[in-house]
Each structure stands twice: as structure tokens, then as C-alpha cells.
Design goal:
By secondary structure, this protein is of the alpha/beta class. Helices cover 60% and strands 8% of the residues. It contains 17 helices and seven strands. 28% of the residues are buried. The chain binds adenosine-5'-triphosphate (ATP) and magnesium ion.
């Protein structure tokens, strides 16, 4: 059992320190947790397939579940394999088959094989697994975990009960962050907590990691500190940039954003994402808004593919210039009608 106070000065990552140890301490996913709890209680545990975005509690849930089922026998009854292990067909033929084919003579319980990050298993390995899953159902249950369910072959999907772990609601992330703040005796302003929650976008791991890294740089955590430490643009700066894009000419807007990028060391991609959020909250003629959103998506794709930042910045400014023209035309049309 981890003593919170004694570990405070160690460099233990908070994501591990605060990993839920039992099913009750998993935030959100009430429906999934209660279903799994019922399956355990009624002793009709199926093969499971957990999928969903990172940091939503998939690994934590199955580990908490396994600890609850096996307690001190965890070590002998559970086989955990993740992306750091070999994921080829030989693992299915040897490690998995060996573990699955043997029965613990001291208990009637089935064993559990956790295949974490199963979407990185080769297709051959997944195909080989189909038969193993069926053949050893008496001895063993499988829990496959992945981010992208499309990378799991249909035959495996149909053998498992699927649970989707959706991005966590901000309410649950906030609750957990407030709990950690209390345990760690941190001083965090309300807007600082909101900034952490907002930047996490449904990923609890990201929220906890941001909190830990920010707490290492300062004792008084505010919204501004959170944005600065994570290399994200401040909301006020984004508001100003968007207003310039909407009102000023091409030359001025381009220079302003370029200077901002150089002075604050913030990436164009982060600026673009924040502008996208900000745009969703402003009142703008529909046609222009649709145009802007489509263009922002294109620019994001091009930046992530490694295209030139300067050209993409000019495309961003141009997109707003064009959207303004569309808005003016729309207004004129309305007046004429
Ligand atoms: N629902 C949750 N309740 C409480 N803590 C959570 C939850 N989800 C994630 N966490 C925190 O985030 C950390 C990472 O969670 P976990 O490893 O379960 O995510 P995951 O869904 O398996 O992500 P990945 O797909 O990247 O493997 C945990 O150690 C825990 O601290
Ligand atoms: Mg995981």
C-alpha cells in the first residue's frame, strides 16, 4: 500500500501513485464498472475487449478488476502482455498457449490474460489467437485492450464483450485533480484547475501529468502558469489573435502571429487548435464559419504532415480574409432580399 506522505518526496509519477487500486475508485464509466462487477459476482465473466482513447482508465479497470478477483493469487493467475513485449505469432503459440493450457489445481477459478495495446498485435497473431480463445475458454478469460478497435480483426471482436471507454467528462477530471491537489497540499487557483481540465480534453493521464509538471515549477498555480508551463497559448492571446484575424489586414495579421510565435515559442499547431475552440464560441455568419472550420481542419492536417509553418500561417490568415468576404457578401444578399 502506498503511503501518500512518505512518497511525496520521491519522484514517483503521480499517474502511477494515483492509479485506482479498486473498481470503486475508477472515475466515470459507472455503467461499465457496474456491469463488470455484476459479471464477477455472478461468476459469468466473458472475454472482454476494452477500447477507447488514451488515459480513460482501460488498463486501470482491468488491473483493479483482476486484483479484486484474485487478490494474493494475482501473480500466478494473471498474464499481462503489452506493446513492450513481442506481439508476433510466436507469443500466441508459446507464452499465451502455455499459460492458457495449464490449470491451477488449487482453485476452480479461471485465469486471466490481459493483452494490453492489442491493436499493435500483428494480424497473424490475432488470427492465431481466435482458436486459442475458443480452445481454452474453460481455463482462461482474455481481456484485450486497444485504442483503435478497427485494428482488431472482426473474428476476435465477435468473441468478446466490448466496452467503449469514452473520453472522461470534465466534471470527473476536475474531481480527481482536486483530490490530488488536496493530497499533495498544492495551492492551485480555480482558473488554474479549469485550465488543466481543459487542456486534458478528456484524458485523465494528461491532466495528472500536467498538474505534476506545473507543480514542479511553482507553488502558486494559476491559469497563466498552466498555459505557460505546457507551452500552450494563453486564452487572452488567442482571443486577441482571432480578433486581429477577423478585423485587420493580411500583412498585419501575418506579422503579429509570426512575432507571437517567435517571442512566446508556441507552435502554430497549438495556436490553430485554440483558435478552433475560440471560433466555436463566437457568433459568426454560418457560411463563413463553415468555411473557416473546413480550412482549419485542412491546415491542421498539413502541419501535422510536416508542411512549412510559414506557408500554413499565410493559409490561416488567408482563410479568415476569405471568410470575411463571404460574410460581407452574405450580409449584402440579406439586405438586397
Ligand atoms: N477513469 C479513471 N479514474 C481514475 N483515474 C484514471 C482514470 N482513467 C485514467 N486514470 C489515471 O490515468 C492513468 C492512466 O490510466 P490508464 O493506464 O488506465 O489509461 P488507459 O485507458 O489504459 O490509456 P492507454 O490507452 O493510453 O493505455 C492512471 O494511472 C490513473 O492515474
Ligand atoms: Mg492502457
Amino acid at each position: 500500500m502506498i503511503d501518500v506522505n512518505s512518497t511525496k518526496k520521491t519522484n514517483l509519477m503521480w499517474v502511477e501513485k494515483y492509479r485506482p487500486t479498486n473498481l470503486n475508485s475508477i472515475s466515470s464509466h459507472e455503467h461499465i464498472i457496474s456491469t463488470i462487477q455484476r459479471l464477477i459476482d455472478e461468476d459469468c465473466f466473458p472475454h472482454l475487449l476494452f477500447y477507447g482513447p488514451p488515459g480513460t482508465g482501460k488498463t486501470s479497470t482491468i488491473i483493479a478488476c483482476a486484483h479484486q478477483m484474485y487478490q494474493k493469487n494475482y501473480g500466478t493467475m494473471v498474464l499481462e502482455l503489452n506493446a513492450s513485449d513481442d506481439r508476433g505469432i510466436s507469443v500466441v503459440r508459446e507464452d499465451i498457449k502455455n499459460f492458457a493450457s495449464t490449470k491451477n489445481i488449487f482453485t476452480n477459478q479461471f485465469k486471466l490474460i490481459i493483452l494490453d495495446e492489442a491493436d499493435s498485435m500483428t494480424n497473424d497473431a490475432q488470427t492465431a489467437l481466435r482458436r486459442v480463445i475458443e480452445q481454452f475458454t474453460k481455463n482462461v478469460r482474455f481481456c484485450l485492450i486497444c485504442n483503435n478497435i478497427n485494428n482488431i480483426i472482426q473474428a476476435i471482436q465477435s468473441r468478446c464483450t466490448k466496452f467503449r471507454f469514452a473520453p472522461l467528462d470534465n466534471k470527473f477530471i476536475k474531481e480527481r485533480i482536486e483530490y490530488i491537489i488536496k493530497q499533495e497540499n498544492l495551492k492551485v487557483e480555480e482558473d488554474g484547475i479549469n485550465a488543466v481540465v481543459r487542456l486534458a480534453s478528456g484524458d485523465m493521464r494528461k491532466a495528472i501529468n500536467i498538474l505534476q509538471s506545473v507543480s514542479m515549477t511553482t507553488t502558486q498555480i494559476s491559469e497563466e502558469v498552466v498555459y505557460r508551463c505546457t507551452g500552450n497559448p494563453d486564452l487572452k492571446d488567442i482571443e486577441e489573435i482571432t480578433q486581429i484575424l477577423l478585423k485587420d489586414d493580411f500583412e498585419f495579421a501575418y506579422q503579429h502571429i509570426q512575432n507571437f510565435i517567435i517571442q512566446k515559442g508556441i507552435s502554430l499547431l497549438d495556436i490553430l487548435r485554440e483558435i478552433h475552440f475560440y471560433c466555436l464560441s463566437i457568433d459568426f455568419p454560418q457560411k463563413s464559419m463553415i468555411y473557416i472550420l473546413m480550412k482549419l481542419a485542412d491546415i491542421e492536417t498539413r502541419i501535422t504532415k510536416g508542411c512549412s509553418d510559414k506557408i500554413q500561417l499565410s493559409s490561416l490568415v488567408a482563410c479568415f480574409q476569405q471568410a470575411r468576404e463571404l460574410a460581407t457578401n452574405e450580409e449584402m444578399n440579406l439586405e438586397n432580399n
